[in-house]
Design goal:
The structure is a homodimer. In chain A, about 70% of the residues lie in helices and about 0% in strands. By secondary structure, chain A is mainly α. At the A-B interface, α8 and α9 of A face α8 and α9 of B. The structure holds a DNA duplex.
Chain lengths: ~190, ~190
DNA sequence: TAGCTTCTACCGGTCGGTCGGTCGGGGCCA
DNA sequence: TGGCCCCGACCGACCGACCGGTAGAAGCTA
């Protein structure tokens, strides 16, 4: 019934880090959330910073396996782009606090942890930009610069976790569809223009 | 030559808050940045939280006067939307740390300060959504929900300050133009679809 | 001298993290 | 079966460092 304690700790920490921010969250709060004292919590974790890194590592792995690995198998470039946007957007609607933390708390890491995460983020962004670049050489991009396009789409996607509420008027599927449509018709060349 | 000390303090604080985050920034760091000791700094400011609030207040005022007030005078809705996106995007490229802080450090405020800022943010986003809504009744929006559209565009715009570098390959004008184009063709109905 | 500006020194409080120790259940042996 | 002990899981108490903020006096300028 219960999951194991480490998993419970990581999920609770991710949620609280997301709600209050990494620096504004004390180790004590995390301990209380998992019904431990601070010292008890330290039986499981190595430190606050390590906790943050593990959460970000998990989030990047999720992105790499759930978005990149899947989209890379699609050879049609338009469909590949649609997969990237819709799958990443879907993850953002599913309360993945870890994914949201990726964006805001990078500075909380040590230099080497930061380098490791940033490298993987750059690789992700490169995948997106290359997909747009390849679409460009197929003439399907209009007068669009792949870099601006990639960051533009990424901004739309990442922002979802800030405004989407599961109990709101729009369902997760609706939001994902809407964002995907804006993204695709935003960057793809139009039949006549 | 120098501006007055309070202005220097606000600008330095905004820059450091943006770079390191509000909670990770100590009063001492801000003091050193303006060549004062901590106590010397307190001659000018009321406290760390008040400093944050004044920065956010300034940022919201900038948004209201430089974006909303200008765009509201344009009666053509497509042009109005173009003005909102391009003017807001332009502000994001101009190193306005204050604008960027608006997004991430809301939780650092007291409850009443937070309410004040959030109300104005809601008003801004309502302006954007209403513009999209009016475009919708003119049949120029395709099958797009104004709320998703507004947040989608906002995400693209706010994200700019995270990736745009003034010394990079793309100029501020190019980025603004690109983002504006993606935004407009993303939400407006296409000639044939 | 008057008063604006800035300093040194210090406060109470909270932080991340550590240390020695406790407790209960499962394995082991007679 | 009964008694023993070991060890994983957890805790109370504490540490040094640093935080935001303050008091009061010194320096500078007019």
């Amino acid at each position: 019934m219960d999951q194991d304690k480490p998993t419970e700790i990581y999920q609770a920490a991710a949620r609280i880090f997301y709600e209050k921010g990494y620096h504004a969250t004390s180790i004590n709060e995390i301990a209380e959330a998992v019904h431990l004292t601070k010292a008890g919590l330290y039986y499981y974790i190595k430190g606050k910073q390590d906790l943050l890194y593990r959460i970000m590592d998990f989030a990047m792995t999720t992105l790499e396996t759930e978005v990149v690995a899947v989209a890379a198998q699609e050879s049609d470039l338009v469909e590949r782009l649609r997969l990237i946007v819709s799958r990443h957007a879907y993850l953002m609607t599913q309360g993945g606090s870890a994914l949201a933390i990726l964006v805001n708390e990078i500075e909380g890491l040590t230099e080497s942890q930061k380098n490791s995460i940033v490298d993987r983020q750059r690789s992700y962004i490169r995948f997106l930009r290359d997909t747009l670049g390849a679409l460009g050489t197929e003439g399907k991009l209009g007068r669009l610069d792949p870099t601006s396009g990639a960051f533009g789409l990424l901004g739309m996607i990442l922002w979802i976790s800030r405004w989407f509420r599961a109990d709101g008027q729009l369902s997760a599927e609706e939001v994902v569809d809407q964002v995907t449509e804006i993204a695709l018709s935003g960057v793809l060349a139009h039949p006549q223009s």
